[in-house]
């Protein structure tokens, strides 16, 4: 009896050990296998008929129990949810489900995300341009913390991502997970969040109007959340002109440039020669912007009221700036000339594209060029400045243009300053001239001697004109300078002046300076026979120079005896051939 009792007790003990040690483990394996089979059956039903009975949370947990060895072929990956974090660039995502297997030993494409809307795929293999950064891979969860190469593109194939490897809001995505241990894959189709933020693209303004063939830059910057995005591919296309850089092999209208470390980009652009408006389109990371460029063909039409002004004459020069017949408004036009002056030198076109300025001819005859430049173009016009008729000008009223007489036929002016207006000649050489100097003026005359000694009618008229044109209008005192020997036979001329002008002072030029010169408005110099007159005149020239520039009027009516008073040499006609114009010519040549 005792023996049977011992056998019974040992049997009960063995059954207890078996129950405690073996049956739970077997039951767990059976439960995991059963749960995995249930999940696999559900997946199969989903594949075959597009529907399946939901698997309970308990069964899912048992099937995902990584403490139990994964039996090959026991379960296919099933993605239950995809959660996105789009607040960073590129986005983060978390996959939850079951059957994902354990962490892959190498980057073999076990996770791919295909953008079916834009035609590109990201995957964890070197063959993919964009690779997900996998932080966690568990049987029930995969965590991706970003993408390497996100925002790049395939320069050989524009259709691969439509110019940019990024996910855009609303894109259809196919997420595929391949179990690294079984090689079995599962796929889930999801939509990239409609409210996902995208980068900001700013394209810098391009010059409003450009001339054909001008090279400019298309530039801008790319940011995300206020931070610069580097290494992003920017696509640029234009409807006309030439872009520098790299074009897609299968879409040569699109050019590629990348943002730098500051998110900036720039590509040189040569505008077309044909006038018109062209569009510049810029796209980065599926975000687009466009600007327009106007190419014009500016043309300046320049004209002046007269193409043959007289020396010193002022006249309007005007023109119009257009492009293909359309007036160009508020454009700056700059004038220049090879002779004379233009005022103002810079003008602005009005509502009709027109502009004008005043041209003053130089005091020297000749052909000069007026140039108007603006809006990338220019125009020129030739103008011929002429001498006025000899009968025009100061003191020439009722005067002949040719003076003749015993002395007039042999005396003439040389070394006149540039721009001097010739008033009369002796047939071939100038005998009277007028020119402006600073704010003042100079009248040089050789012929008073004919008035004094021959009583020539034209000489009397000329002297009276000199008084009327220069002396009577003077608002300041008039100074009469002689050669130190009084006016001698010239007193007749002095008397004429004294009758016409109230405030007249006579003085000699026997010293090399003129006292209180600034009190005089007009100075008349008349001298003969003084051999030292030229020396004093030379000394007083700087004083006269300043005085004339400040508004003084100089009447120089004098001859000088060049032989220093040694004697008179009688020429063939009985007239002294040494009675010359040394003083006048010296003065005219030194006052500029």
Automatic annotation (TrEMBL):
Q: List membrane-spanning regions.
A: 7-30
From which domain of life does this come? Answer: Bacteria
Q: Which UniProt keywords apply?
A: Membrane, Transmembrane, Transmembrane helix
The record's listing under InterPro entries reads: Ig-like_fold, Invasin/intimin_cell_adhesion
Tell me which Gene3D superfamilies the record gives: Immunoglobulins (2.60.40.10)
Put simply, this protein is called Uncharacterized protein
